[in-house]
Each structure stands twice: as structure tokens, then as C-alpha cells.
């Protein structure tokens, strides 16, 4: 199964290349990929028929008990056949549906194959969280497929609506999964279903949330509005996603969880009531449609309601009827969508008011459509009849439900006849529609699907043997699928349904005014628009009240929330009962006093630079506390971070007023000081509570031994970063790269990976005068400091060497990639401050984006190397070496991970210098603005 998923992924990646080379014919080759899923399912038919399960498990994240757990049983085996078989046929169909040179065909083919892979992963997932991952992947891919025609507003709107509704339902479902998994003790569904579920309100809540996601995905009331709108998608998308695959995900989930959750209180009422409303309302709406594709769309909504009823009923007979209807619906509805695509493609219209005589012009196409529509209506001997009769028999003891099923089924017969009459009938007074002969590649797929539905009816007994292991999960199965059960009540009701549907079609003339008037006062589309408009208005109102452009107001709001919520919890529970010692060393008290005084003075400072320096004193004081507590590595990092922060502040303050505003008023200042003081007390209380809350031994107690035995280093802090908790560091440097990209994108008007600013040709130095920094000559005389330039030139290379020393010594001594990168970044900062942006380009003639990307690539690459050598990602390996004059020594592969961290930090500092520094300088020079107290000279040497 994992191989099938990987195959779909690879095919999706190469699909654009294949399409660019072979055009639409590449879809024929890509069709082999979902066809392999069919072959795999057919090969394992024996195991499924015997009620067994095919299981594959791969370890992924052991700490979270999250594995790639794959499991195929009867229901998922059936879905594999449908997802793979219909997917392959749709790709064959697409090879002729799209003309050569179609815009975006490569993207379409890639996304369709990726969607097939995601759907395959969804139906074989045994872990609920893994199922959710694939669930959301199908949502994203369906958004891209529905919105394929990006130039059309209707396509974009339909894609956004489908994404919004299904994503919100998916998020609700995720919360339900988390509730279920936490209380059941795991997320492996096979294990959860095999054990008794503890009762309680949490289970009811979990069931309701899960059903919200399932009903939203399958467009069941009240989430049924998005599916008809999604018909803006190309016809192959409608045939696959909205007949056989995506919309089946919700009812598949109901069927998958039903054996365990059907006895839970709200399960049956919600699925049955919502399904019946959808069945009748969707069928009634289908009778009003003149667009054949919309008619099928509302019919799909109606049939999905029927599936929700039978799969959610929780009885063995209903379950067997449900899986039979699941197969029948996929076959006839995807075939009919493909037929509509042929009509639209060859006749130029799919409006039944414009079509006439198509049945005579295309008899084979009409025959295919008749087979599929007859199965949809439940005409014997097709599979649709077998499934429909089984549904009626399963609810024979529930009269109200049975009455709604009969009414909805009669509507299904009526709109099936309307479809055939509108598409292929001859309309009086209307000239016959010219229809080109459909190519075999387009006619073949719907013909295969329609014939499969026809052949499966007489083979119902054999099919019943394959599907009954699923029904037996609900209890013993007494009734089996068959084409003929004799003169039963279900047979009589089937005849009544057919007669009622024919009667509805015959009275369509007098019924037209009733159809026009009897509708919901607010359509699904209007309801969605009103809801989204209401949220937009609410967002505007909330934004107008809260987003005033005042940073103090924002910060005050955040701090007040901190004081009220966590602070209130602290006061209510008083969890800070821990033994405290005033200090371990009197020097700690002195440092604390310095930090407190600096913080108080920073609040009252009038100049921005003064306030920034005082805040820096608090940071350096924190570093001194690390020194006094015996943490030199943390102290070194804190010193470097504080220094880099001050440098960044200097860059920012150049574009801000020298002094703070005269506001706020005295009363307002005291209010803000009060908020700050209370927030400080709350943070102190939280620190005390955290210190006294530990009950289990700390996992960090084992880090010193692990650092030596597994990380091969004595610096516990650095080994923790690059080995023991390397995944955390990987996430942090990824965030750094994203942050740097975001900062630069807000400031740069040009690509930051392009050529660096070229230094103007400097003037020849005066006789006997040494040029210390070449870029310094581009600065005005008042901006230059000869002492600064001399010192920078003398220490720059030494500082860089020191940064490399910290990098390579950090495994056993204070240092590491982060500290070394900060030192190298400070060296670049010196060059910039001394010589300007052209001097920075001389010091680092490479793009910041390149350095960031290289660092991330090196770190990720080291993890891959660990996987290849040890079987675990980011696992360190010790390599013993020997060199002349040096002798024996060893190399730990985590040094390469640290090199990546070093490059990321250097790239981040370089990005900041070029965005907040050099790029701002360029803007100032371009505008001809003078610097704050500095003389800015145009590009060129000083006179």
C-alpha cells in the first residue's frame, strides 16, 4: 500500500513533464497509476472475501505514537476499486476531452493523480490522525481541481466555497478525533473499535464533531450547498470527485466508524434525519434543473443523503445495502457525468432546452446513458435495482423512514427520466442538434462504467459474498443481495417507486408551476453568501474597534488578557508553594538590582536610543545570571543575542524620531506602568508554579550521559541542540528562514538573491593615505570614522576565525553553530557600520537567500545521511580518522547539522543588514533625504 502511495506521488511530480512532452496523450500513461490500485485490490480479493485484513505499519513519530498504519478490509477494498478504477477511466477520458495546448493541463493532470493518491491514502489509513492528513489533502487538491479555470470567476468562487465548507468540517472532525483518541487511549482505529468505549459527554461531543466533518465532505444537509456550485469544474473533475471519490469520503467515514459508534446516542438520529432531508430536497431540486450537469449534481446530493441514511443506520442489512449502493452510485453517476461531458464537447450544449434528436444522432452514447440512468432509477436487472431493493427491505420495519425513502426514490426515477428525455429525446418545434461522433477514448470510459453496473446486477449473489464481511461487523446477516427474492414487500415498493417516478415525469407540465414555487426561501448559495458576508462585516467591525494602529494598545490588551486569565487561575489555585532561597551567591542580588534599575529607567527614558541601551542592560544582566549559575554556553549565547539585538535596534531607530512622543498623559502613563507591574507579578507567579508543578523525573537528567554515549560530545547544550533534540532545532531554523523571508519581502522591492549593489569606482587615494575600507569612500565625510575603519579592518578576519572556532569547538566546549553564526554576523555588522552598504557587499558578495537556503539544505542533508547510515533521521554517527602529524581523532556527523545552523544564522543577520540597513539606505539615497544627523552622499567617491 505504501508503494502505491509513493507511486502516485512520483506520478504527480512527473505529470507536468509528461504533458509538456506528449500533450493530453500523457493522461493515457498516467491512467496506469490508479489502475495499479485496482490490480492490487483484485490481487487481494481472497483475503477480503474471507473477512481478513491486509495490514502495513511503518514507524513514523514514536514519541507521539503516530505511525503510518495502513489497513484494508471490505469497505476500504471496495473504495480502492472505485477510486482507482474510476480514476483510471477519467484520465483516459481526459486524453481526448482536453484539446492539445490546453492551458494548465500539466497542472490538472498532476493534481488529479495527486488527488487519487490522497484518496487512496484516506481509505486505507488505520490511524485517525493519518486519515485526517489525507482528508485535508483531498480538500486542497479538490480546491485546485474545481478552480482549474482560474480565469473564470465562477470557478474561483466555487473552489473557495468548497474549500471553506469542507475545511471547517474537517477541523471539527479533527477535534472529534482528538477527543476520541485521548479517551480511547490511542488513534489506531482497529484497536479503538475492538475495545469498549468509555461513555460520557465527551463521546457524544466527539461523535457530533466527527459527523459534522463527514456530512460536510459528502454535501449532506445542512452542508449541501457547495456541491452544485462545484459543477463549475471541468467534467472529468465532476465525474471523479463528485461522483466516485471526494464526496464518498464522508459516507465512507460514516461506514468505517459505524460499527463502533452507531450505538452512541446522536449517531443514528443525525445521520438518518440529515440524510432523509438531503434525499428529498436534492431530488426535488434536481427536477427543476435544465442544465444536465446541475441535474446530476442535485441528484448526487440526493443520493449522498440516501447513503448517509443506510450507512448510518447501524444494522447489518442496512450496511450491506449501503455498500452495494455505494458501488452502484459510483458506477452510474460517474458514467452520466462523462456522458454530459461528451454532449457538451460534441454538441456544444448541455442545456436540455437546446438539445433535440441527439438519441438518433448518437445511438451508442444514448444506449450508454440509458444503462446508467436505469441503474440510477433502480430498474432491474441493474445493480442500482439490487441495491435500492435491499435499502427498502432494510427499513421495512421503520414506516416513517421507509415513506421518505420511497418518496426520495420516486424523485430519483423522475429526474432520471428527465435526464434521458432532455438529453436524447426529440423536442417538437426544435431542430435536431448536430452532434459529432464521439471519439472512442471518450465514449469508452462511460461505456465501461455503465456495462459494469449492468453486469453486477445478475452477479449480485457473488457480489454479496464479497461485501457481507463488512455487514457482519454490525451483526449476523440473514438477507443477502440477489436479483430476485421473490414477491416481497421490497419488490412491491420498488414497483411503486418506478410507477411514481414515471407519473411525476408525465405530469411535468402541470407540475412545473409547483416546482417553480415550492422551494426554499433562501437557496444554499444565498445562505452561504449571507453567512460569509456576515462574517466579513463582523471582521470589519471588530477590526475597527481593536485595530487602532496603536502598538501600546495592542500590547496592553495582550497583557491584560495575560493578567486576567492565567493570573486569575493563579489566584484561584495558588500553585506556587515551593521552597525559595533568596540567592545562592550575593553577586546574584547585585545583578538583579542592576536589571531592575535598568528596567525602571527604561520606562521613564525620553530618548529612544537611551531606552534601547537600558533594555540592553537588562539582557546583559540576564547573561550574567547565567554565568553566576554556571551556564557559560547559555551566557555566551545571551551576550551575543543581546549584542545583535542592539545592532538591529540601531538600524531601525535611524528611521524613527529621536525622542518618544510627549504623550501619553501622566494618568495614562501610570495605568501602563500598573499593567506592566501586574504582568510582571503574573509571570513571576507562573515561573514559580512551573517550578513546583513537576511530578515526574525530568527527562533532561539523562542528557549528560546521552550527550557522551550517543552524541559523542561533552557540551550538553550543544549536543542537545544538534542531536538529542535535533528535530526541535530543525523546526527553529526553518522558522528563522521563513521569518527572514517575510521580513525581506516587506522591505525589498527587488530580488534579494540577485546581484549585490556594485561599489562605485573609488577615487585614487591621496598621496600617502591608506584606504582601510573600500566601501567607506562612498560615504560622506561626516559619516566616516577613520578609527572605526582601522579597527574593523584589523579585527574582522580574527572575529570570523573566532566564529569558526566556536562552531567546531562547540561539541565539547562553549560554542556551537548558533553562537558562531552570531559572531560572524556581528563581524558583518561591523563592516556595514564602518563602510556602508557597499562595504557589506564587499564583505559578503553572496545573496542572503542563498546562504539561508544552503544552511537549511545542509541541515536537512545531514539528517538524510543519518537516516542512510543508522536508519534514523538526524542520528549522529562517530567516524574515527587518522591524519599525519595529528594522529587519531574522530568526527561526529552532527557537525554538519551545526554547519547548517551556522549558515542559517549568518544568512539571517545578512538579510537583516541588507533589508533594514542597506535597502533602507538605498531608499534614503533615492529620495534624496538627509540622514538623522548624518550627511548622505550620492553613489560616488567622496570629493
Explained architecture:
By secondary structure, the protein is mostly helical. The strands form 2 sheets. Strands 1-2 form a two-stranded antiparallel ribbon. A two-stranded antiparallel sheet has the order 3-4. A hairpin with a 3-residue loop joins strand 3 (878-883) and strand 4 (887-892). Helix 5 (74-97) runs parallel beside helix 16 and helix 29 (632-653) packs parallel to helix 35. The protein is elongated, with a radius of gyration of 35 Å. The termini are far apart. Mean pLDDT is 85; it is low at 761-767 and 930-943.
In short:
The protein is mainly α and 943 residues long. It is 70% helix and 3% strand. The longest helix has 34 residues, at 894-927.
Keywords:
943 residues, mainly alpha, two-stranded antiparallel ribbon, two-stranded antiparallel sheet, 37 helices, disordered C terminus
Work out the number of β strands.
4
Low-confidence stretches: 761-767, 930-943
* Beginning-to-end CA distance, first to last residue: 74 Å
Helix content: 55-70%
Number of helices: 37
Largest beta-sheet characterization: 2 strands, antiparallel
Q: Give the class from helix and strand content and strand pairing.
A: mainly alpha
Overall average residue pLDDT:
85
Gross geometry:
elongated
Walk across the major sheet and give the strand order: 1-2
Radius of gyration: 35 Å
Strand percentage lies at under 5%
Amino acid at each position: 500500500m505504501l508503494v502505491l502511495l509513493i507511486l502516485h506521488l512520483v506520478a504527480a511530480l512527473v505529470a507536468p513533464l509528461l504533458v509538456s512532452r506528449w500533450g493530453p496523450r500523457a493522461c493515457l500513461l498516467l491512467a496506469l497509476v490508479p489502475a495499479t490500485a485496482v490490480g492490487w485490490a483484485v490481487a487481494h480479493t481472497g483475503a477480503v472475501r474471507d473477512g481478513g485484513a491486509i495490514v502495513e505499519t511503518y514507524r513514523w513519530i514514536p514519541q507521539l505514537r503516530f505511525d503510518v498504519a495502513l489497513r484494508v478490509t471490505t469497505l476500504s477494498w471496495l473504495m480502492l476499486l472505485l477510486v482507482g478504477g474510476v480514476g483510471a477511466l477519467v484520465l483516459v477520458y481526459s486524453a481526448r476531452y482536453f484539446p492539445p495546448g490546453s492551458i494548465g493541463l500539466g497542472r490538472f493532470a498532476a493534481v488529479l493523480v495527486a488527488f487519487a493518491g490522497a484518496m487512496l491514502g484516506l481509505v486505507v489509513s488505520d490511524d485517525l490522525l493519518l486519515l485526517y492528513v489525507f482528508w485535508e489533502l483531498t480538500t486542497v487538491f479538490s480546491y485546485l481541481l474545481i478552480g482549474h479555470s482560474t480565469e473564470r470567476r465562477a470557478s474561483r468562487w466555487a473552489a473557495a466555497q468548497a474549500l471553506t465548507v469542507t475545511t471547517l468540517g474537517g477541523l471539527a472532525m479533527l477535534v472529534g478525533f482528538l477527543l476520541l483518541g485521548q479517551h480511547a487511549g490511542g488513534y489506531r482505529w482497529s484497536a479503538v473499535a475492538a475495545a469498549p468505549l468509555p461513555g460520557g459527554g465527551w463521546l457524544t461531543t466527539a461523535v457530533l464533531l466527527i459527523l459534522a466533518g463527514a456530512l460536510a465532505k459528502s454535501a449532506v444537509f445542512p452542508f449541501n450547498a457547495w456541491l452544485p456550485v462545484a459543477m463549475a469544474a471541468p467534467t472529468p473533475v465532476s465525474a471523479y470527485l463528485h461522483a466516485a471519490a471526494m464526496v464518498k469520503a464522508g459516507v465512507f467515514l460514516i461506514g468505517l466508524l459505524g460499527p463502533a459508534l452507531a450505538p452512541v446516542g446522536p449517531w443514528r438520529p443525525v445521520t438518518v434525519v440529515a440524510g432523509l432531508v438531503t434525499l428529498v430536497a436534492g431530488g426535488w431540486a434536481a427536477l427543476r434543473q435544465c442544465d444536465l450537469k446541475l441535474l446530476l449534481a442535485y441528484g448526487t446530493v440526493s443520493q449522498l443523503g440516501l447513503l448517509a441514511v443506510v450507512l448510518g443506520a447501524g444494522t447489518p442489512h442496512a450496511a450491506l445495502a449501503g455498500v452495494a449502493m455505494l458501488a452502484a452510485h459510483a458506477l452510474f453517476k460517474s458514467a452520466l457525468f462523462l456522458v454530459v461531458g461528451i454532449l457538451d464537447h460534441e454538441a456544444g450544449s448541455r442545456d436540455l432546452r437546446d438539445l433535440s434528436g441527439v438519441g438518433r444522432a448518437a445511438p451508442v452514447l444514448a444506449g450508454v446513458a440509458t444503462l446508467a440512468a436505469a441503474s440510477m432509477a433502480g430498474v432491474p436487472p441493474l445493480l442500482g435495482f439490487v441495491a435500492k431493493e435491499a435499502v427498502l427491505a432494510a427499513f421495512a420495519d421503520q414506516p416513517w423512514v421507509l415513506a421518505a425513502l420511497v418518496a426520495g426514490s420516486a424523485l430519483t426515477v423522475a429526474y432520471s427520466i428527465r435526464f434521458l428525455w432532455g438529453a436524447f429525446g426529440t423536442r417538437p418545434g426544435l431542430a435536431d442538434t448536430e452532434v459529432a461522433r464521439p471519439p472512442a477514448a471518450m465514449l469508452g470510459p462511460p461505456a465501461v462504467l455503465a456495462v459494469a453496473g449492468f453486469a453486477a446486477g445478475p452477479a449480485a449473489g457473488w457480489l454479496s459474498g464479497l461485501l457481507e464481511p463488512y455487514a457482519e461487523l454490525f451483526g449476523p446477516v440473514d438477507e443477502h443481495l440477489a436479483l430476485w427474492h421473490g414477491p416481497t414487500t421490497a419488490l412491491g415498493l420498488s414497483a411503486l417507486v418506478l410507477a411514481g417516478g414515471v407519473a411525476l415525469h408525465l405530469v411535468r407540465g402541470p407540475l412545473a408551476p409547483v416546482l417553480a414555487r415550492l422551494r426554499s426561501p433562501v437557496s444554499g448559495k444565498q445562505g452561504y453568501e449571507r453567512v460569509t458576508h456576515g462574517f466579513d462585516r463582523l471582521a470589519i467591525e471588530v477590526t475597527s474597534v481593536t485595530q487602532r494602529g496603536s502598538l501600546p494598545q495592542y500590547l496592553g490588551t495582550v497583557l491584560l488578557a495575560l493578567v486576567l486569565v492565567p493570573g486569575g487561575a493563579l489566584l484561584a489555585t495558588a500553585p506556587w508553594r515551593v521552597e525559595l532561597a533568596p540567592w545562592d551567591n550575593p553577586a546574584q542580588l547585585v545583578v538583579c538590582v542592576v536589571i531592575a534599575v535598568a528596567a525602571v529607567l527604561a520606562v521613564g527614558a525620553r530618548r529612544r536610543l537611551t531606552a534601547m541601551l537600558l533594555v540592553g542592560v537588562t539582557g546583559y544582566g540576564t547573561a550574567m545570571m547565567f554565568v553566576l549559575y554556571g551556564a557559560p554556553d547559555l551566557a555566551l549565547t545571551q551576550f551575543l543575542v543581546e549584542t545583535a539585538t542592539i545592532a538591529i535596534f540601531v538600524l531601525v531607530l535611524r528611521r524613527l524620531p529621536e525622542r518618544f512622543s510627549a504623550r501619553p498623559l501622566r494618568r495614562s502613563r501610570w495605568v501602563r506602568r500598573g499593567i506592566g507591574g501586574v504582568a510582571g507579578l503574573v509571570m513571576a507567579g507562573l515561573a514559580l508554579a512551573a517550578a513546583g508543578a513537576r511530578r515526574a523525573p525530568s527527562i533532561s537528567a539523562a542528557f549528560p550521559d546521552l550527550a557522551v554515549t550517543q552524541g559523542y560530545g561533552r557540551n550538553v547544550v550543544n549536543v542537545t541542540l544538534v542531536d538529542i533534540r535535533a528535530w526541535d532545532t530543525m523546526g527553529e531554523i526553518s522558522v528563522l528562514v521563513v521569518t527572514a523571508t517575510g521580513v525581506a519581502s516587506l522591505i525589498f522591492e527587488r530580488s534579494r538573491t540577485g546581484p549585490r549593489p556594485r561599489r562605485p569606482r573609488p577615487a585614487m587615494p591621496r598621496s600617502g593615505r591608506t584606504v582601510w575600507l573600500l566601501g567607506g569612500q562612498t560615504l560622506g565625510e561626516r559619516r566616516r570614522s577613520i578609527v572605526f575603519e582601522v579597527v574593523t579592518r584589523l579585527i574582522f578576519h580574527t572575529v570570523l576565525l573566532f566564529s569558526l572556532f566556536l562552531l567546531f569547538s562547540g561539541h565539547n566546549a562553549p560554542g556551537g553553530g548558533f553562537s558562531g553564526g552570531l559572531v560572524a554576523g556581528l563581524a558583518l555588522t561591523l563592516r556595514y557600520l564602518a563602510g556602508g552598504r557597499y562595504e557589506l557587499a564587499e564583505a559578503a558578495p553572496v545573496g542572503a537567500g542563498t546562504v539561508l537556503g544552503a544552511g537549511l539544505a545542509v541541515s536537512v542533508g545531514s539528517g538524510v545521511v543519518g537516516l542512510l547510515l543508522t536508519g534514523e533521521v538526524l542520528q549522529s554517527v562517530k567516524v574515527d580518522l587518522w591524519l599525519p602529524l595529528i594522529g587519531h581523532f574522530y568526527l561526529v556527523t552532527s557537525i554538519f547539522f551545526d554547519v547548517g545552523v551556522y549558515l542559517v544564522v549568518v544568512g539571517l543577520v545578512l538579510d537583516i543588514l541588507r533589508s533594514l540597513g542597506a535597502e533602507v539606505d538605498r531608499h534614503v539615497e533615492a529620495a534624496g533625504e538627509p540622514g538623522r544627523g548624518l550627511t548622505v552622499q550620492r553613489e560616488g567617491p567622496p570629493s
